[in-house]
Amino acid sequence: MIKTNDCGALRSKDIGQRVRLAGWVRFYRDHGGVRFYDLADSFGSTQVVYDPEAYQSNVNVVGIGQLLNNIGREYVIAVKGVVRERVPGTEDDRNPTGTVEVLIDEIEILNSSKVIPFEIAEQKNSTLPSEDLRLKYRYLDLRRTEMAYNLRFRHKVLASARRYLDSIGFIEVETPTLTRSSQEGARDFLVPSRTMPGTFYALPQSPQLYKQMLMVGGVEKYFQLARCYRDEDSRSDRQPEFTQLDLEMSFVDVEDIFRTIESLYSHIWKDVLGKELRTPFPRITLEDALNKYGTDAPDIRFGLELVDVTDIVKCSSYDIFQKVLGKKGSAVICVNLKSTLVKEKTLDANVGRSEVDRLIDWAKQQGMGGLTWMRMTDEGLSSNIVKYFGKEVLESLERRTDATKGDLLLFLAGPRHLVQKAGGHLRMKLARENGLLEGMDHQFVWLVDCPLFQADPVTGKVASFHHPFVRPVEGDFDENGELLSFKGCSYDLVLNGSEIGSGSMRNHHAEVQRKMFRALGMSEERMREEFDFFLEALEFGAPPHGGIGMGMDRFCSILLGCESIRDVIAFPKNKKFQSLVDSSPKKVDQAKLDELQLMSLVDEDEQD
Length: 608
Hints:
It contains 16 helices and 26 strands. The two termini are 46 Å apart.
């Protein structure tokens, strides 16, 4: 080995030892002929020193000095020397190796480096360069301590999951990356076939059909760290390619799956974080999640729950509320920003009028007409609109919202689905601005009791709530009945207000699966074209089965407190889904298109 020790390994116990280190030169300083270098690798950094007065006569001081004259930032070097204690007062408490240094007596330059485009070493009060610059030079960004730690943390999480699933009888099975295009929710990435011109593979959005066929094949307990590909709109927690911990089980029910997943995360928690995880996870129905938290991925760690006051305020003479409630499907909800303690966090509800105006402007940006407010005082609710609310109405509002002195009641009015969504954003905004999330433990929650179907918000047509392979709660359903009334055996796993997993019990009877397709408007011809192989598989004694797919990029980013999942992926795409490190996607030579018998729709004059 070129190294006897990693650059983050040396401690006081190693003083007097002769070592060989190798890494990148982060900083160097010249103090009157004594030169100090921070030598770093992915494990940490150690200070190495060239000190002419400290060497014995058998050390080539001149040779070492000449080599050091040729060394720049991020040069790759190897040094040999003896570990010694740092001069008292020069220790670095921020660095685990900060009590020692290595006196160089041999040095070798392993490679040089161009001038780096941004600072790699973290310094006090330094700011990161733009994300696009970091992604263009991602191989340099990965040298930063934070990124090196993130990748190692991710590795530990995935390795822990693998070990645990293996210990309870799961086997890891890889499924194809070149698959058949099918309807699974997002747009497919397509790959043309050279050997069968005019035909295309699709990159898998998930291993859904393959893992179900593995259950038909008797695998019983399958898992895979699967690469998934979805052509979706960009968000901070989305990438066009991502890693999913995918698993499926046969001869189980929903409770078996919940227990397995909870025990899996308990193992990861203990193994990686060294903490106990509270189980079982709380469960909340979709209806309660929307009514109380305004989202199907609720953060339940703090209060500020939404309160529906529609039935109370409809008795007021407040014109804005009356106009809104005159339309079918409208609602008025309230968030009580309490001045009292909520889970040991003090919320300051004594917000000035300028702050209220800021919240009103924010509500307008959310697509709402605005925001109405009242403050609780010793005399009761007070604002410039209370004159439109009778005494009984105000007293009912106080009781419904649990208003006490100093509380600020914030009201949103409009179509129920918009009001709930805006209310969900409002409670999270208030929580962040008032420090409610600081120091909070992580909290998992299961979202349950979901419908089998939903109405498409654009077309109004019936669509799957999760996907077409979810088993109805009753095992079957009347395809001529009221489709939106049927429940499905599906569930989501939510962590700190972010969905990290989605799963279901699956249809294992071919005829029930055909009913699902027909209910979604799929013709027999289309069923044969897209799913003939899968439907036939279900006819060969498919066992009852179910499972879940969990986004590991999102999970790791939440545990690490990252703002984006890009910070836990080695080579991610940017916000436009471009890979800046290799400038993809790129146009290809016409010769390659000719080989695939494809035409370019871009004129030559338009090509880069």
